[in-house]
Structure formats: C-alpha cells, structure tokens
TrEMBL record:
Belongs to the MAL family. Residues 8-135, 140-276 form the MARVEL domain. The chain crosses the membrane at residues 12-35, 41-61, 73-93, 99-125, 146-167, 173-198, 210-232, 252-276. It is found in: Membrane. Keywords: Membrane, Repeat, Transmembrane, Transmembrane helix. This is MARVEL domain-containing protein. It comes from Mola mola (Ocean sunfish).
Length: 281
C-alpha cells in the first residue's frame, strides 16, 4: 500500500518543483500552438521543455507517495543531477529560442521565452537548495566535483549536437578530437551513473587518484582540440552562410571546447586539493 506524504507538497522545494512543472508546460504549449518548425534547434527546445516537465512530475509523484525512499539508488544524487541538467538545458533553450525563433511581433514566442527563463531560474534555485553546504554529509553529485562532472557531460552533449560528420570525416586531426570527446564523455557519464546506482559504496582513494589522472588527460586533449578546431576553420564567416550554417556550428564547438577545458582544469585542481590536502590531514 502506498502512503501519501501530503506534508512534502507544502515544503519549499516541492513548491519550486510545482512551479517548474507549470512554466515548462507553459513554454511547451505556447510554442506548440505556433506550429511545427523543421529545425533541429526548435526540436531541441521542445524536447527540453517536455523532458523537464515529465521528469519533474515523476519526482513529485515519487516523493508525494514516499516511493523515493524505497529505491536502491541515491535519490538525492538523482534529483541533483536532474536539477543541474534541467538548469543547463533550460538556460540553453531560453537563449537559443529567444535568439533564433523570437521576434518583436511574436507574442506567443515572447511568452515562451519568458516562461522558459522563469523555469531556468526555478531550476537554478533548486540546485542552490540541494547543493551540499560546507561540513554537510551528502552524495558525491551534490558536491563541487560532482557538479563539475555534470557540467562536463552537458557541454560534451552540446559539442556532439553541433558536430557534423562532413566537417571532420576527411581530417584525421579532427577525428582524433571527436574520439577524445567521446572517451571522456563516456568516463564522466560512468562516474555519474556509479554515484547514483551505488550510493552505499564511496569512491576509494585509488579511484579518486585515477580520476585525477583522467581529468589531467582530458585537459590535455581539450587544449589540443582548442588549437586544432580553429586551425581548420575559416577566419571569416562565408558570405553564403545562412542561419546556423556549418561555420556557426564550428564556432560553437570551439567555444564549448574551451569551456570544457576550463571545467576539467577546475575539476582536476579541486580533486587534487581534496585528495592530497584535505583528506591527508
């Protein structure tokens, strides 16, 4: 028999999640009412609003019924991962939709941009509420290294989304960069999955040290990619380049490569400080 925890609905975090559901559904509905657009970025925005709406409803139902406490996974880490991903996805969707699909006379599109931005603020607030405070016992993904791992995976997903096989299929250097993106994306994803599925098994010291070396290798790979991608890219935008052409996507890949290099460097530095400075005391 499933018991209903009505008190959990009145908690601040639950109220925030209910507002997230409302605004993500509003964004999806407003854009859907304007008609379908055959564009991958439009589809990505619609997926973001629909995905965040469905998962947030799922989280609310699990906590309202108390079933979340009966799961074998780390529920706190799961909700933290989703809230962080939803924050990043909502931020990206709000920017992309506002820049590409919104005009001064598009009332519904402007409304969708506003509600999407409000949903982004709400998800960011949730991340702030669930993030581990100093001295507080929490799961790995609620700490700074866990948050950096989530960001690394998300940025890599944006890189993959913007990659076009025709841009690197005939260039071995660029193919090597794509392989590097894939390897470190898989490793970061496995770390996140392990943290969620094995909450009672903390990472060992040897695993943490191996993770530090992986972060170092990732920094070297992304530093190399930062040089390689601009080298094979034209300095000026082609005159025949329409909206979001291949040149634009290359710019996004280059920028996201720089961003992920910084994130991996921060992850590596913070992990070294934790392993060799804090835990050795």
């Amino acid at each position: 028999m499933v018991a209903l925890y009505s008190r959990s609905v009145a908690e601040p975090l639950a109220i925030i999640r209910i507002m997230e559901v409302i605004f993500s559904f509003a964004s999806f509905s407003l854009v859907a009412s304007t008609g379908h657009i055959a564009d991958s970025f439009w589809t990505g925005c619609m997926f973001t609003w629909g995905f965040c709406f469905c998962i947030t409803i799922f989280i609310l139902l699990m906590e309202f019924t108390g079933l979340s406490s009966k799961l074998l996974i780390s529920w706190g880490d799961f909700t933290t991962v989703f809230a962080t991903w939803a924050t990043l996805m909502m931020m990206t969707a709000s920017i992309v939709f506002s820049v590409i699909f919104t005009c001064l006379t598009c009332v519904l599109s402007i409304g969708a941009s506003v509600t999407s931005s409000l949903a982004f603020i709400l998800y960011a607030t949730e991340v702030g509420l669930t993030f581990a405070k100093p001295g507080e016992k929490s799961g790995f993904l609620s700490t700074a290294p866990g948050l950096l791992k989530i960001i690394e995976v998300f940025v890599a997903c944006i890189i993959f989304f913007c990659l076009d096989a025709s841009l690197y299929s005939s260039l071995p250097w660029l193919q090597g960069c794509v392989v590097g993106y894939s390897v470190f994306f898989i490793l970061a994803t496995l770390v996140i999955i392990s943290a969620i599925c094995c909450p009672s098994t903390p990472f060992s010291a040897s695993f943490n040290k191996a993770l530090i070396w992986c972060n170092r290798l990732a920094v070297l790979m992304y530093l190399t990619a930062m040089v390689v991608w601009p080298f094979f890219q034209n300095n000026s935008r082609p005159s025949n380049c329409q909206r979001l052409c291949s040149w634009d996507k290359l710019v996004v890949v280059t920028f996201m490569t720089i961003l992920n290099c910084i994130v991996y460097a921060l992850d590596s530095a913070y992990s070294i400080w934790l392993v060799f400075c804090v835990r050795s005391q």
